[in-house]
Amino acid sequence: MSHASSTSVLRFACLAVAVLCVAPVAWAERAETAPALWGYGVKSCSAFLAVVPRADIPPELIDEEYFRYREWLSGMVSGLNLVTGRDVLRGAQIDAAMSRIRATCEDDPGDDFFNASLRLVRSLGQLKDRSVTE
């Protein structure tokens, strides 16, 4: 890893630690309001299922929206890996995780992509079964 990229990773890690230290205090002060969630995680499972490609679709024809969900999941997993200090997917690839989330969403299309993603991580035993936003 180059010096510049290791410096960037260190800065990001320091920022993440600072946010994690300050956020609980801020959330406790306004306990009646849940923290805001951003990005594709707030979209419904039914919206995600609408863009999931069929198995016979060539990669170049996959809807760009699907890749946005995939990138959102990659960011969430990376953040959880940094915070927990371990691989929350236990060696699984993002595409395998997307398949599992698809199955979860098919079971409950009214849920959101964030909670479906967290259920996957919890099922792998990498997070306690409680809200990450507490």
What general form does the structure show?
A: globular
Structural class: mainly alpha
Oligomer: single chain
Q: Termini, distance in Å? A: 35 Å
The helix fraction, in percent, is 55-70%
Question: Would you kindly provide a written description of the structure presented here, covering whatever features stand out?
Answer:
With 134 residues, this protein is mainly α. The chain is globular, with a radius of gyration of 16 Å. It folds into two domains: 33 residues; 100 residues. Helix 4 crosses helix 5. Helices cover 60% and strands 0% of the residues. It comes from Thiorhodococcus drewsii AZ1. This is Rap1a immunity protein domain-containing protein. Keywords: Signal.
Strand-helix topology:
Elements: H1 3-29, H2 45-51, H3 64-84, H4 94-107, H5 113-123
Helix pairs in contact: 4-5
Protein name: Rap1a immunity protein domain-containing protein
Keywords: Signal
Signal peptide: 1-28
At a glance:
It comes from Thiorhodococcus drewsii AZ1. This protein is an all-alpha fold.
Keywords:
single chain, disordered C terminus, 134 residues, mainly alpha, 2 domains
